[in-house]
């Protein structure tokens, strides 16, 4: 790991107005190897890395993170890093029992620290994904301890990107909202953030303006929000779907002058109906088809087509724009249908979605089962049932010397059979008859044969 760090940090220019490096080692009692102001050149840093000796004991990552927050990242100390500057924490871990680091990591992120993770062991991916600063694909690496060199450039590029970044980050964009995130320029200072955002006019460049200008390329239509100096994010709401917005962040402080940051983003389009089609209440001759979302302002009607597969007569139903389901009747039992729901939009556009649905097989129960003893060990079995949809009947009965469940005999009979005779039965033999369908055995009837001497 130390060799990896040496190669990772070698290209950086060190110094008070350049990159500064601090190192914490994790152990039972974490140790600050050196702070930010210790080494102002690569020679000193590289020599320090070769002289570090590993700590023994437990992996007390939680206390190490607390130390990082309290001493290394605290502004105003001789070894601290001023909050207004970009800060990056790279956590190298073998993944063994790091403890409950989610809370401490979240506190560091809230202070504006970018968190990157390199794991050389079998780590909890879900936990690491939660603690790193997005984007996860650039800031979370899993690599074998002997192959760490393959990620050196990618990790270094990610650090450089964070250090040089002075821009707004737009996240969690939906059809009508978006979250803005920025480096906390004003932490520890007096002042506030002014956020201006507006639609980018058709044919506009989409770029942002400088301080005092409208973010909208239209020149005048924009909204203005004020955010506390202690915060570094805001949620923009009430946006239009599928619309490009330009947004500017203006840090206002009497102590330090900051540049205005600008960016653009596009809200997601509204999913046109039907975006989902579901099937419920599936029976032998009917099914209910439902769809959504309902959009009565843009849809004039819904058109439902259905036919048997692989090919069959096409049937259709038209329902109003305020209806989100319909019951298809008079279907064939045990049959596969293709159902297509089409929304006819007021604009003339049509959108369709299709699903397959299977109706249930006809499963009539047996009407009656009667046993008539014949002699001392035989019985005449008679039943009433419907042959429609049947593949046959399944009989089971007790063997001569046992009534155990695994000592039973069975017999298949064709669907036109309504009686049979069983012989060599034990006293109080249990006889059961069940109907058989194409995909399932139906509910059967059972009776006990009682023989008299």
Task: Write up what this structure looks like.
This protein is mainly beta. It has helices at residues 2-9, 42-51, 61-72, 102-110, 125-131, 136-139, 152-164, and strands at residues 23-25, 31-34, 87-93, 113-119, 140-142, 169-171, 178-181, 192-199, 223-228, 233-236, 244-252, 261-266, 276-280, 287-292, 299-308, 315-320, 325-328, 336-345, 350-358, 368-374, 378-384, 392-398, 408-413, 419-422, 429-436, 445-449. Helix 1 packs across helix 7 and helix 3 runs parallel beside helix 4 (102-110). Residues 203-219 have low confidence and may be disordered. Helix 4 (102-110) links the parallel strand 3 (87-93) and strand 4 (113-119). The chain is built from seven helices and 26 strands. Helices cover 14% and strands 35% of the residues. Strands 9-8-11-12 form a four-stranded antiparallel sheet, with no helix packed on it. The protein has a four-stranded antiparallel sheet with strand order 16-15-18-19, with no helix packed on it. A four-stranded antiparallel sheet has the order 23-22-25-26, with no helix packed on it. The chain folds into four domains: 1-165, Rossmann fold; 169-201 and 221-267, Sandwich (Immunoglobulin-like), CATH 2.60.40.10; 276-358, Sandwich (Immunoglobulin-like), CATH 2.60.40.10; 367-448, Immunoglobulins (Immunoglobulin-like). It comes from Gambusia affinis (Western mosquitofish). Keywords: Basement membrane, Disulfide bond, Extracellular matrix, Glycoprotein, Phosphoprotein, Repeat, Secreted, Signal. Residues 1-159 form the VWFA domain. Residues 164-270, 273-365 form the Fibronectin type-III domain. Residues 201-212 have a biased composition (Gly residues).
């Amino acid at each position: 790991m130390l060799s990896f760090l040496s190669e990772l940090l070698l290209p950086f220019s060190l110094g008070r107005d350049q990159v500064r490096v601090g190192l914490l080692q994790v152990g039972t009692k974490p140790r600050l190897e050196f702070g930010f102001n210790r080494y102002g050149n690569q020679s000193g840093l590289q020599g320090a890395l070769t002289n570090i000796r590993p700590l023994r004991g437990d992996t007390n990552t939680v206390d190490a993170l607390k130390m990082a927050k309290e001493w290394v990242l605290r502004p105003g100390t001789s070894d601290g890093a001023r909050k207004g500057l970009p800060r990056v924490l790279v956590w190298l871990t073998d993944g063994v029992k790091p403890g409950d680091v989610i809370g401490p990591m979240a506190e560091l992120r809230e202070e504006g620290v970018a968190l990157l993770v390199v794991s050389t062991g079998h780590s909890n991916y879900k936990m690491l994904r939660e603690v790193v600063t997005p984007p996860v694909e650039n800031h979370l690496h899993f690599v074998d301890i002997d192959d760490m060199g393959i990620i050196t450039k990618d990790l270094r590029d990610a650090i450089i990107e964070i250090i040089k970044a002075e821009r707004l980050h737009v996240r969690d964009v939906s059809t009508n909202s978006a979250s803005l995130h920025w480096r906390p320029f004003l932490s520890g200072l007096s002042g506030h953030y002014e956020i201006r955002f507006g639609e980018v006019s058709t044919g506009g460049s989409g770029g942002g303006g400088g301080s005092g200008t409208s973010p909208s390329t239209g020149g005048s239509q924009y909204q203005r929000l004020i955010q506390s100096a202690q915060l570094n994010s805001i949620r923009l709401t009430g946006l239009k779907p599928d619309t490009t917005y330009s947004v500017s962040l203006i840090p206002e402080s009497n102590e330090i002058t900051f540049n205005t940051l600008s960016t653009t983003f596009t809200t997601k389009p509204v999913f046109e109906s039907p975006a989902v089609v579901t099937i419920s209440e599936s029976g032998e001759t009917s099914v209910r088809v439902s769809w959504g979302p309902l959009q009565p302002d843009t849809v004039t009607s819904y058109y439902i087509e259905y036919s048997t597969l692989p090919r069959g007569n096409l049937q259709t139903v038209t329902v109003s724009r305020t209806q989100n389901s319909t019951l298809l009747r008079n279907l064939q039992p045990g049959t596969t249908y293709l159902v297509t729901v089409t929304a006819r939009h007021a604009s003339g556009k049509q959108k369709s979605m299709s699903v397959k649905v299977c109706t249930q097989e006809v499963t009539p129960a047996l009407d009656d089962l009667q046993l008539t003893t014949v002699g001392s060990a035989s019985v005449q079995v008679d039943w009433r049932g419907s042959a429609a949809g049947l593949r046959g009947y399944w009989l089971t009965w007790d063997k001569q010397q046992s009534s155990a469940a695994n000592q039973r005999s069975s017999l298949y009979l064709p669907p036109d059979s309504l009686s049979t005779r069983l012989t060599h039965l034990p006293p109080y033999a249990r006889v059961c008859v069940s109907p058989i369908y194409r995909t399932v055995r139906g509910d059967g009837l059972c009776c006990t044969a009682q023989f008299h001497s």
